[in-house]
Amino acid sequence: MGKEFRLKNKNKTALKFSLAVAILLCIVVFSFFIGRYHIEPSRLVQLLTAAPSNWLASSDASVLYYIRLPRIILAVLVGAALSTAGSLFQGIFRNPLVSPDILGVSAGCCLGAALGIVLSNYISFPYLVQISAFVFGIIAMIMAYGIASISRGEPIVMLILAGMVVGSFANAALSFIKYVADPYEELPAIVFWIMGGFYRGNWGFVVNLLLSVVPCMVLIIFLSWKVNVLSLGDEEASSLGINTRIFRLLLLGLGTFIVASCVSVAGSIGWVGLVIPHAARIITGPDHKYSIPMSMLIGGGFVLLMDNFARSLTAAEIPISILTAAIGTPFFAYLLIKGRGNAWR
Amino acid sequence: MAIEAVNLEFGYKEENIISKCSFTIDKGRICCILGPNGSGKTTILKLLNGTLKPRKGLVLLDGHSIEQLSKKEIARLMAFVPQEHNGVFPYTVLEMVVMGRNPYLSVFGRPQKEDYLIAEEALEMLGISYLRDQCYMEISGGERQMVFLARAIAQEAAYFIMDEPTSHLDFYNQHGIMNVLRRIVEERGCCVIIAMHDPNLTMAFSDEVLMIKQGQLLQEGLAREVMTAGNLGDLYDMNLKIASLEGEKKVVFA
């Protein structure tokens, strides 16, 4: 009987994942037709199979290849990466309220971006804003980790507190930059950048993320079962043969890297990394071996869907973080009510 | 094959919490560590499994110093059964037990079919297969203690370290868990080291006893020899008597 049951369970998991992939693909296909420029559904297959030399041949082909396709890929990648990092961090920190921003990474990225925006008036350097955002995000994480390591308290609590410290400091610095920035040009640019979006999407960013974020996500999937062991707490994980310090540093490093990469391309998109992992766990159960890949699929679909609304609801684009927060907060409230205080179920 | 503590000394600040502690516990034995609250029982357990590093002295596992062993190698030899668990993810019992296979998996490894089989055998051995697909947080305290024992069995370790495994259990389950430990020791030739509060359970189930008072080893030896009214009275600073009830010795208040 035991074996049959496991087989059934396995088939059920396979079905859930196939459904998630199918839904994501549907959203992707649907997204090709959204936007100002109308693309005939009957033309899609013909356009998608066109050789790269024909990408500029017609206006619908160039809209598809140079505007919509990179934007779709970016939205899916960023959504998947933020949800993966969220799921990973919630497991490492054993806390349902943890989001990828926990170590002050996003705050660091925003500070870096603001600095980049102001500096780009004086020096011109390709992708200055993105690079500066990425570097500051990583620095924020290193500082948070460093403070936590020196403090010698209970490591997880210290990391959360140190993350708060670094995040708040970065926010203070950001406010200062906003205060001194030129209110007609720079300030709106900073504010709009931080609210996030994929309007800057191009193939350069896509290639960048494919090379940096995707390998990290693959590594995280390979390590996902170990997150189960790590989530039992340091003492137990260590008695089960895990070197908790090295493992946590490795996973935090991977998570931080993908979050910083995403934020430096798309700005800070809130609520995705907090809420999607909970949605994934409702579907797959708590085993990270399943819940992390499921977060990836749902997160990709969710952010793409939100981006479709962002670019089509009004004539001007709505910053995507407004939409993700508007959908994410009621969903989180629903989880709190349904779980009767236990945020894990 | 044995676990040996050689001249252990440990302290967080200048003064020692544990001093001059030496003992040897062979495989195939249950050894209980008795001592008043704050005497250093848990500290000794943590020194034995390498969670804490001794200031002086060393711990030898089958002749190897544990400082020279990796976490993984220690985990293959020694399992820790927590007393209470403050996990947050509602894993199923099987998912929890299969984590005991971690020391046999590579960095990127995840449990395979054989590992799940070993986990299920461990559940079967303890007679709790029916719990397999339940959430380990939603079962009784006694059952949960069994689940952690099953995880330790799946870990295939020779040494079991337990910190007061009976302190949260009712009378029936206290007896149950001690019986199971006895069986594990007999069937698998393991060595079980338990920090204990109950002298009567110690009397009934333990082969050897370590008595710890203020970080020092007061008595060490076979339970039937060391567990006297005098020794226990010294240990807890109180008057105690040993009564005989149908041939079984019991510790009672004098």
Per-chain topology:
The complex is a heterodimer of chains A (345) and B (254).
Chain A: H1 2-31, H2 44-48, H3 59-93, H4 105-119, H5 128-151, H6 155-180, H7 186-195, H8 203-230, H9 234-239, H10 244-266, H11 272-284, H12 288-312, H13 320-338
Helix pairs in contact in A: 1-12, 3-8, 3-10, 3-11, 3-12, 4-5, 4-6, 4-7, 4-10, 5-6, 5-10, 8-10, 8-12, 11-12, 11-13
Chain B: E1 2-10, E2 18-26, E3 30-34, H1 41-48, E4 56-61, E5 64-65, H2 71-77, E6 78-81, H3 93-98, H4 113-125, H5 141-154, E7 159-163, H6 171-188, E8 191-196, H7 199-205, E9 208-213, E10 216-222, H8 223-226, H9 229-236, E11 240-245, E12 248-253
Parallel strand pairs in B: 3-8, 3-9, 6-7, 7-8
Antiparallel strand pairs in B: 1-2, 1-4, 4-5, 9-10, 11-12
Helix pairs in contact in B: 4-5
Shape estimate of chain B: globular
Helix content of chain A: over 70%
Distance between the termini of chain A: 27 Å
Helix content of chain B: 25-40%
Helical/strand content category of chain A: mainly alpha
Corresponding CATH superfamily of chain A: ABC transporter involved in vitamin B12 uptake, BtuC
What structural class results from the helix and strand content of chain B? alpha/beta
Give the CATH architecture of chain A: Orthogonal Bundle
CATH class of chain A: Mainly Alpha
Q: Runs of chain A with pLDDT <50, length 5+?
A: none
Average pLDDT of chain A works out at 91
